[in-house]
Amino acid sequence: MFRPTGPAGESGQPACHPPGEAGPDHSLRLPSALTIAGSDSGGGAGIQADLKTFAALGVWGASALTAVTAQNTRAVLEFLPLPPPLVVRQIEAVWDDLDIRAVKTGMLATAAIIEAVADALSARGVGRPGAPPLVVDPVMVSATGCDLLEPGAVQALRERLLPLATLVTPNLPEAERLAGLAINSHSELEEAARRILALGPRAVLIKGGHLKEKRQRPAAGPLQAVGIKLSPPAEEAVDLLYDGKSFRDLRAPRVAVPDVHGTGCTLSAAWAAYLARGLSLPEAAVAAKEFISAAIRQAVTVGGGLPAANQFPGGPYRPAGT
Q1: C-alpha neighbours within 13 Å on the C-beta side of residue 154
Q2: DSSP for 49-79?
Q3: Pairing of β 203-206 and β 236-242
Q4: Could you tell me if 106 and 137 are in contact, meaning their C-beta atoms sit under 8 angstroms apart?
Q5: What confidence tens digit (pLDDT) does each residue in 146-200 have?
Q6: What is the 8-class DSSP label of residue 315?
Q7: Which domains does the chain have, with CATH numbers?
Q8: What is the pTM of this model?
Q9: For a FRET experiment, which of 17, 93, 281, 310 has its CA 20 to 30 Å from that of 123?
Q10: Are 56 and 312 in contact (CB under 8 A)?
């Protein structure tokens, strides 16, 4: 998790430690990432999943809350979007103090919030060379089936936010809405990626975990599951990455579990974290795929509904009684 990355800092404050003991160590300097998203009161998705992912990958997590949801592992019961000026004020407060190395967006809820966020990020150079990369997770529907984006807001997403994005990470239903295309095959997946890229992002990652089709394209790298039950060998979870020059399949064995809560948030947060740490898009692609694959393989049961993605595979979570 967190490790020192630079020389010790100086606080200018008097020592607050007993005589004879070492003083505070200010050598721990971390890259910071900002998530702009909604809260999940059940802890499985949204801001909560993003911040856990950042921490797991050694990145300091900052947040700007866009909406408060009342939800658990079974359903989203209700949500309330925050006033756009308050969302912007959070972005300003964080940006004016922290060294933000990457940004991600999740649930934005309304067209007014999308426009306000786009204006705030544009004012800080996002979308221009040398600015922190922006990962857009175009959240539209929760894993439990609740609409999280008001009707009509998709157009604001397409026109205002995607042109600023380094990467946009739709799942299949989101990709269909952004591209205006039904996706039932790998060729249609590629066409959807082309259409979405034409909206302005630097790259598109379509999460194809629910597209069950044998594919012949070479794998991006070995992603092996150990000690868990897998679906039949022909079934893989294949995400498609397109940067305008080439297509790349990111493969992992499909895990024989129900839908897992928080996977989209966790994957896009992992992308943001790796970009904040200085990885290139191709490097972040493989690393983020491996991270989400492990988070799904070791998903945790915390309620009576969907299992939740585990952002700390191998720890700190332990089975009860151990």
Answers
A1: 16
A2: HHHHHHHHTT-EEEEEEEEEEEE-SS-EEEE
A3: antiparallel
A4: yes
A5: 888 998 899 999 999 999 999 999 999 999 999 999 999 889 999 999 999 999 9
A6: S
A7: 32-297 (3.40.1190.20)
A8: 0.84
A9: 281
A10: yes
